[in-house]
Design a protein that fits this description.
The chain is an alpha/beta fold. It has one domain: Zn peptidases (Aminopeptidase, 3-Layer(aba) Sandwich). The protein has nine helices and ten strands. The strands form two sheets. The protein has an eight-stranded mixed sheet, with helices on both faces. Strands 9-10 form a two-stranded antiparallel ribbon. Strand 6, helix 6 and strand 7 form a beta-alpha-beta unit. The radius of gyration is 30 Å and the shape is elongated. The protein starts with a helix and ends in an 11-residue tail after the last strand.
């Protein structure tokens, strides 16, 4: 009898202990272990050689599309129109969009189709920046903060042999105060539309040749409202690259009406022309490498500093032209009719 009582007590204790533990387990909140997600370091593609000799337009496009395939988070390609012969107006952008860049700059070449050295050099800039992203702190910082648009050839129908488009100089085809409603030839009109769509903070227009930087104005000898900004930034670039720099109106000794440099500035961008090299032939690999090494630091300085300039839009020079005279607008100095 006693044994039965003891066994019953043991069984009751086991049942009680089981139920107690079950209730305790149900009342405990299990806190899952949080494992931090480490975002992989984004790096650009391995580009073995970016200082290339002359490339055809199709070769450039195919090369950049390969970059995009290898680094889709850093490279974007697209078109902004087509030429009269049906060729795409091609552009590409490099930046880390995940960082939400606050600035935009645009680097162009070959508005004059016979200046292919400018194309090969800006392509070297783009390949260098892309390959160094995630490896070089300076390049990484630039592409985290700035969208860098490249247009390697503005005038594909005349690349690489001809300057003129439909018998006119395309770099005299931009609107000016004298002709603000001008309808430009095809490559310039497409470029204008794209520029106004993107609205970059700054733009560098690549040309050849002479190793000189040109700044606004070309169509006036009046001071530019941002003259100090141009002197500081372009003056520093000139020292870094051993280039000269001057106003576009000083280049030929006479005024230049309808140029890219003036139009871009009047539409809100810090704008310079960069005259690369010493000839207008197809560049060799040595030509591209020499100019790239000479100007690389100046180019990076341009991208870093030019996008921060506040263009003084409410003081842009606006002249009203008459047959025999130019009427001065507000307090700006007038110039003689030409």
């Amino acid at each position: 009898m006693k044994i039965k009582i003891i066994i019953c007590c043991i069984l009751l204790y086991i049942v009680y202990d089981y139920e107690k533990n079950k209730i305790l387990q149900q009342s405990i909140t299990v806190i899952p272990k949080v494992i931090p997600v480490i975002e992989p370091i984004l790096k650009g593609p391995d580009i073995e050689d970016y200082t290339l000799p002359y490339q055809s337009y199709d070769e450039i496009i195919n090369m950049v599309k390969d970059w995009e395939k290898n680094s889709p988070l850093l490279v974007e390609t697209g078109t902004y129109g087509s030429s009269e012969k049906g060729q795409d107006n091609f552009y590409f952008k490099i930046s880390n969009e995940k960082k939400q860049p606050q600035y935009k700059t645009m680097i162009t070449a070959c508005v004059h189709g016979n200046e292919p050295w400018s194309t090969s050099t800006i392509m070297a800039y783009s390949g260098y920046m892309l390959s160094q992203y995630g490896k070089d702190d300076r390049i990484t910082k630039i592409l985290d903060s700035t969208e860098v648009y490249f247009i390697p050839v503005i005038s594909p129908d005349t690349y690489p042999f001809r300057r003129m488009v439909n018998g006119v100089d395309p770099n005299r085809e931009f609107p000016s105060p004298k002709n603000p409603d001008k309808k430009s030839v095809n490559p310039v009109q497409n470029m204008r539309d794209f520029f106004l769509k993107i609205k970059p903070n700054s733009i560098l227009s690549g040309h050849t040749y002479g190793r000189v930087y040109l700044v606004p104005w070309g169509d006036s000898r009046s001071p530019n409202p941002n003259e100090k900004d141009y002197a500081n930034i372009v003056g520093h670039m000139a020292k870094l690259s051993d280039y000269k720099w001057e106003k576009a109106s000083q280049l030929y000794g006479s005024l230049i009406v309808g140029s890219d440099c003036d139009w871009y500035h009047r539409n809100g961008a810090f704008s310079i022309v960069m005259e690369f090299g010493s000839h207008q032939r197809k560049p060799s690999e040595n030509d591209t490498e020499t100019e790239f090494e000479r100007t690389k630091e100046a180019f990076l300085s341009f991208v870093e500093e030019s996008v921060k300039v506040n263009i003084i839009a409410d003081q842009l020079i606006q002249y009203y032209y008459e047959p025999c005279k130019i009427i001065r607008y507000k307090n700006y100095r007038k110039i003689k009719c030409r």
